[in-house]
């Protein structure tokens, strides 16, 4: 069996990852602006290659006003679109102005003390500006989430014709309030934070302890926890230093590609199996492409290999400390090309040497570890243990989503199918909702690729047998699906509607079936098991009383404001049909606690557990639209479809629903629908 993911991550780590991802989402889109600012400083400040006093005047306003404001704007837009972006930008400007006021007040106080000591005013050195990067990262979520909350208070209470007036003035008034919040408490807080962090870094530098940061940073990278450190601390502090001195070593603490390069070269020389074969290509992607995550699975194969990247990281930092290596701005992505492009004038030798020495030390430590365990590694490989695939799976689980770079490694490391792939099963807990829609999406892709003889069915995990070539399941259910199907290839997904894994499965089928006769273009699809038929000939019209989806079970304006409320609302509609016991609603909540029913494309399909099928007298479906969306485990959802499947009569409708939610234009049509009949019509009037 080969797998593509591992067990779910712990909640604490997931929270840190989400926090880091949010910070990264604010910073990364604005890296081009930081690069542009770095180019201006490289050429036009007095210490630049071509000093120009006029153009150099751009440096201050760009770093002090433009960059924090666009970071705040981006963060606000991530949460609440344009309204969130605008109020976040207003609040960020308040923090900038408040910080300037605090610095001016402190400079006046210090100048008074300086003069009182008999010193000349001309010799007084003022405190510099504090750039509000952290202020923007605080104001963006505060402003946008609060604006979103306020809008919900008077949602549907505004008289027709006054919507624009209310929207404009509410955002303007709230923006003014946020301006004051930024000016006073946030500016004060951020100045205090920057003072503490700056003193901590200065203490580490003064005591030659900065290399010790690698003990935290390098393992954090492997577990995708580095974004919180990098974008929350290193980038703001480094940018502050760069604005004062034109350079900062902090930009190199995390971006140095040397440690990962050394680890991959060690695998290329002393590794075994798929890890050895894929290491040279991974080294190129890491070093030149700047995608550091490709070396994380290699480090996870043996926890002791973290010592190699820590040693390499400490060596690189030490080299830069001793020789003055530094960058002008962040290097993103962490490619050697990006590092060299941002290297400060006069620091090229130090930076290049730091990369070389970091790679050398990492290579030497990793080589010793790999050679010492070579005998046991060969024995494990002979016994069929695939540590490399497991490490790739763990890396994707740590990241929380699929990665094209890691998928390439998985393709190199996964066991090739022994023959053509003819049967695929999509497995979930109950086999009535998520798997049915996922199977419908995947079946459509498989058939569109011309493999109409490949069957795609869905089943509950409890009903799996070891007769399938490929098993697709949610990443959190992989451990439960694997024991029942040990001979199958296992593929995990985290987005049922638009997972990139589906294309990988299609490509896997294409490769495995390439030697088989291509199916005739006119050949009819092979019969699909009744338990999984999601797309079939349209059913005849039936009475409303016998419909799987009744018009009374379609609500265009849901009242719930969160995930749990939406599940209850959808479940109560199912109960109201008379086909489902009231206890089924509790099982829907139980199912959601184990595995999310978020499907992607603004859709969630809550349903009960496999054990709750006894509470269903007849299949029923409910549809609720939430025009303003609700948060579903960090994902936006506007359509909640409750499912209670007793047999197979609901699967045809789910197939139609899946087709609709794969088409953006049809989703837009559902958003504009003005009656329940229009919603049901969009699903092809499939019932019964």
Key features of this structure:
single chain, 688 residues, alpha/beta, Rossmann fold, five-stranded mixed sheet, four-stranded parallel sheet, 25 helices, 56% helix, 8% strand, disordered N terminus
What would your notes on this structure say?
With 688 residues, the chain is α/β, with parallel strands linked by helices. The chain folds into 4 domains: 54-207, no CATH class; 208-401, no CATH class; 423-532, Response regulator (Rossmann fold, 3-Layer(aba) Sandwich); 544-682, Mannitol-specific EII, Chain A (3-Layer(aba) Sandwich), CATH 3.40.930. It is built from 25 helices and 9 strands. It has a 5-stranded mixed beta sheet. Strands 2-1-3-4 form a 4-stranded parallel beta sheet, covered by helices on one side. Strand 6 and strand 7 (603-604) form a beta hairpin. Helix 1 (11-27) crosses helix 3. 48% of the residues are buried. Residues 1-10, 411-415 and 516-540 have low confidence and may be disordered.
Ordered list of secondary-structure elements with their pairings:
Elements: H1 11-27, H2 31-44, H3 59-116, H4 133-153, H5 163-206, H6 214-222, H7 226-245, H8 252-255, H9 258-270, H10 273-287, H11 296-301, H12 306-323, H13 336-342, H14 348-372, H15 374-382, H16 387-399, H17 404-413, E1 423-428, H18 434-448, E2 455-460, E3 470-474, H19 478-481, E4 489-493, H20 500-512, E5 549-555, H21 563-576, H22 584-594, E6 598-600, E7 603-604, E8 620-632, E9 635-644, H23 651-660, H24 664-672, H25 676-682
Parallel strand pairs: 1-2, 1-3, 3-4, 5-8, 7-9
Antiparallel strand pairs: 6-7, 8-9
Helix pairs in contact: 1-3, 1-7, 2-3, 3-4, 3-5, 4-5, 6-12, 9-10, 9-12, 9-14, 10-17, 12-14, 16-17, 18-20, 18-23, 21-22
């Amino acid at each position: 069996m080969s797998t593509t993911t591992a067990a779910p991550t712990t909640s604490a780590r997931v929270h840190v990852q989400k926090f880091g991802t949010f910070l990264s989402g604010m910073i990364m889109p604005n890296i081009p602006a930081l690069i542009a600012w770095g180019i201006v400083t490289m050429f036009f400040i007095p210490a630049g290659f071509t000093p120009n006093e006029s153009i150099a005047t751009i440096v201050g306003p760009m770093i002090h006003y433009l960059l924090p404001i666009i970071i705040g704007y981006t963060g606000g837009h991530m949460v609440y679109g344009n309204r969130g972006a605008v109020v976040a930008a207003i609040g960020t400007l308040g923090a900038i102005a408040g910080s300037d006021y605090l610095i001016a007040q402190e400079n006046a106080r210090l100048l008074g003390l300086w003069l009182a000591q008999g010193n000349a005013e001309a010799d007084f050195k003022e405190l510099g500006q504090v750039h509000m990067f952290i202020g923007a990262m605080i104001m963006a979520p505060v402003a946008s989430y609060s604006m979103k909350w306020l809008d919900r208070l008077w949602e549907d209470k505004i008289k027709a014709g006054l919507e624009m007036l209310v929207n404009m003035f509410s955002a303007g008034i709230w923006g003014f309030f946020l301006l004051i919040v930024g000016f006073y408490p946030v500016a004060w807080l951020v100045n205090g934070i920057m003072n503490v962090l700056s003193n901590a870094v200065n203490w580490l530098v003064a005591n030659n302890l900065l290399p010790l940061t690698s003990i935290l940073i390098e393992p954090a990278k492997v577990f995708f926890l580095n974004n919180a450190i990098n974008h929350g601390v290193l980038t703001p502090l480094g940018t502050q230093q760069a604005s004062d001195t034109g350079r900062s070593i902090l930009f190199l603490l995390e971006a140095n590609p040397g440690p990962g390069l050394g680890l991959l070269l060690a695998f290329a020389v002393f590794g075994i199996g798929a890890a050895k074969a894929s290491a040279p290509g991974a080294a190129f992607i890491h070093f030149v492409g700047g995608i550091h995550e490709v070396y994380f699975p290699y480090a996870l194969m043996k926890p002791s290999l973290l010592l190699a990247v820590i040693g390499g990281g400490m060596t690189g930092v030490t080299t830069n400390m001793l020789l003055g290596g530094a960058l002008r701005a962040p290097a993103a992505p962490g490619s050697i090309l990006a590092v060299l492009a941002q290297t400060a004038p006069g620091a090229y030798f130090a930076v290049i040497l730091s990369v070389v020495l970091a790679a050398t030390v990492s290579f030497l430590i990793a080589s010793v570890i790999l050679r010492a365990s070579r005998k046991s590694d060969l024995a494990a490989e002979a016994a069929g243990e695939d540590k490399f695939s497991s490490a790739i799976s763990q890396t994707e689980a740590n990241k929380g989503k699929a990665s094209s770079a890691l998928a390439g490694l998985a393709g190199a490391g996964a066991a090739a199918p022994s023959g053509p792939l003819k049967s695929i099963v999509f497995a979930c807990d109950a086999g009535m909702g998520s798997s049915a829609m996922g199977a419908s999406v995947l079946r459509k892709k498989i058939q569109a690729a011309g493999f109409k003889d490949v069957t795609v069915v869905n089943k509950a995990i409890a009903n799996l047998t070891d007769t399938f070539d490929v098993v697709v399941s949610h990443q959190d259910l992989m451990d439960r699906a694997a024991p029942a199907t040990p001979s199958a290839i296992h593929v995990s997904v985290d987005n049922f509607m638009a997972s990139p894994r589906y294309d990988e499965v299609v490509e896997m089928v294409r490769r495995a079936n390439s030697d088989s006769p291509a199916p005739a273009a006119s050949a009819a699809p092979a019969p699909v098991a009744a338990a999984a038929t999601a797309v079939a000939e349209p059913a005849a019209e039936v009475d409303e009383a016998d419909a799987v989806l009744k018009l009374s079970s379609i609500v265009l304006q849901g009242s719930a404001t969160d995930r749990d409320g939406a599940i209850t609302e959808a479940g109560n509609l199912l109960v109201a049909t008379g086909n489902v016991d009231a206890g089924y609603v509790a099982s829907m909540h139980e199912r959601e606690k184990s595995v999310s029913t978020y499907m992607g494309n603004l859709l969630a399909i809550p349903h009960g557990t496999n054990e709750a099928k006894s509470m269903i007298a007849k299949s029923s479906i409910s549809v609720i639209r939430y025009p303003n969306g609700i948060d579903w485990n960090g994902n936006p959802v506007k359509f909640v479809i409750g499912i209670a499947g007793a047999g197979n009569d609901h699967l045809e409708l789910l197939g139609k629903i899946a087709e609709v939610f794969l088409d953006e234009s049809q989703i837009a049509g559902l958003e504009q629908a003005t009656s329940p009949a229009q919603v049901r019509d969009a699903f092809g009037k499939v019932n019964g």
